[in-house]
Specification:
Layout: E1 3-7, H1 11-22, E2 27-31, H2 34-43, E3 48-52, E4 54-55, E5 58-59, H3 60-70, E6 75-80, H4 85-93, E7 98-101, H5 106-136, H6 147-160, E8 166-169, H7 176-185, E9 194-198, H8 204-212, H9 229-232, E10 237-241, H10 248-260, E11 262-263, E12 272-273, E13 277-282, H11 286-291, H12 297-303, E14 306-309, H13 320-334, E15 341-342, H14 344-352, H15 358-372, E16 377-378, H16 385-388, H17 403-417, H18 422-429, H19 433-443
Parallel strand pairs: 1-2, 1-3, 3-6, 6-7, 8-13, 8-14, 9-10, 10-13, 15-16
Antiparallel strand pairs: 4-5, 11-12
Helix pairs in contact: 3-4, 6-7, 13-15, 17-18, 18-19
Length: 445
Amino acid sequence: MKNILIVDDEEKLRSLLARIVRSEGFDVIEAPDLKSGFKKLEYSDIDVVLCDVKLPDGNGVDFVEKIKLNFPLTEVILLTAFGKISDGVRAMKNGAFDYIVKGDDNDKIIPLLHKALEKVQLQKKVQQLEKRISDKYSFDTIIGKSKVLEQIIDLARKVAKTDSTVLLTGETGTGKEVFAQAIHENSQRVGKSFVALNCSTFSKEILESELFGHKQGAFTGALKDKKGFVEEAHGGTLFLDEIGEMPIELQAKLLRVLETNEYIPVGDTTPKKSNFRLIAATNRDLKKETSEHRFRSDLYFRLNIFEIIIPPLRERTKDIAPLTTYFVDQFCQKTNKTKLTICPDFLQKLEAYQWPGNVRELKNVIERSVILANCETLTSSVLPYEIQHQEGSNNKTLSAFSMQSVEKLHIQKVLNYTKGNKAETARLLEIGVATLYRKIDEFGL
């Protein structure tokens, strides 16, 4: 049922209008003045307000502004006995859906109501979609239980609130784009565009056009003007994946955009402006790339304002079990299978594997395993050959003479000395806290 609020101090006219609106199948709520009308809005889910302009306690034109400020999805149609152009203009500026004259325009009310309701329903659908996207990419949906992942999420939460450039580094498949989306959805730019471009996908010429756009006739095949990703990201976030693959000739142009917010489309001579937040990702060691002159050092320092290193899956084995459970449930729904039970041997093999393709590889393996499962359980027999027959594992007993055994024992001694204080332990060991957490996970300390 769609709720319509009618605000009018003339009881007979209000009752007549209410009967007409109810006859169209709408649920009608009545109010004699602005004060009681606003209370109805607070306690009821109102879709459209039909409001008189002149009321005992105020002006309907001003009431529109108050409604739109507090209930942005609610549409307002103003009714007046004496139409004034100035009032109509001000009403529309304040956000009114329409402004009509009583008596002369009575036949317009019902069609206007339907149009206003269509707009309300569309706005609600958009809001629901935005919420789904926001929920999908929130930090709470990033799956894992390892200490190092918790630390990374904490860093990402903190930088998300700022407008700083973020550099996400780590092996392919570790989830860098997931973190980029989460940072955007938790930033001040949420609701604006999140535009993602993989720099390794295109040649230099095409990548330049994709980034900065081009003018008609700029090159063969440029049949019309084209917006670039930099322009599309205005007000929002530009995510450049695999930025280490960007040709060095384009890096200077990107640096100029970051420093001045200005760029020039291919084939144009007039600069354009774009205000966006940059999040970049790479699986390369950019510091090494700069020393070998394959990446501009000035761009590297401009990107490396806030670096977040995402460790490979083999260094956070505690994340494998929750990720496996999530992917199994996901692919059971996708393939219309009943929920599968994960056998201990299946999970043990997964945790022992090195995962060169990281989370992306794990996801693919789980999808394959769910498809092959013939019963209600997932056993190691459905895993790929290399996982079933891998040599050694992360969980093997360390030799008393191995360097790993010595390292584990030393870390344990320092932890005992500091009574479990991780920050102090990392300081004494002269390593980063993130590295310490990875070692603790790796050795099961």
